[in-house]
What we know:
Elements: H1 2-20, H2 22-33, E1 42-47, H3 49-54, E2 55-65, H4 69-76, E3 80-81, E4 86-90, E5 93-97, E6 100-101, E7 119-122, H5 125-135, E8 140-150, E9 153-163, H6 166-191
Antiparallel strand pairs: 1-8, 2-7, 2-9, 3-6, 4-5, 5-7, 8-9
Helix pairs in contact: 1-2
Amino acid sequence: MASRTSAVNSNIVARIIGRGGPSRAATVLAMAGKKKQPKDGTDVVASNRRARREFDIGQVFECGLVLKGSEVKSLRESKVTISDTYARVHNNELWLYGLYIGQYSSSGSAFAHNPERMRKLLVHRHEIEQMERATEHDGRTLVPLRLYFKDGRAKLELAVARRRRTEDKRQAIKERDADLEARRAMANSRRR
């Protein structure tokens, strides 16, 4: 397999050398091997775009997750769904419900985990109290926004949110369209 990879790379290098010389070939190969990393040092595994559309987002918290080893490996393979996930405070602990983490591809059945078990979230006591007070009123809930790795640890961005009514969604769409039109008009005026 290694010989085939080196043969493919040498073919690419030969084509690039014909176009831009050896320095360009070295640059292209160096860029091909690099993985793009976000500027803040996080590696996003999953994001909940539907939550931003259907909820008014309030205060946002960063939570750690208690996971098993096979769950962490599955997260690194992005085998996760957070669209139907929510969190609740129970007995002064924060629990995450509905998070689906698929089976790790290289694990046997002996080390398999339950993909839909509830998972404990790690936050400070005063943050749990803030979340509990915030969700007691106005039908607010705790909704995950994104799941990511930060310094090698799995983190969850959790927000206190209130579900939008249909007319609120329509208003948000109108505002977004008006903002887009204004940006297009500004761009067109700059071009002229």
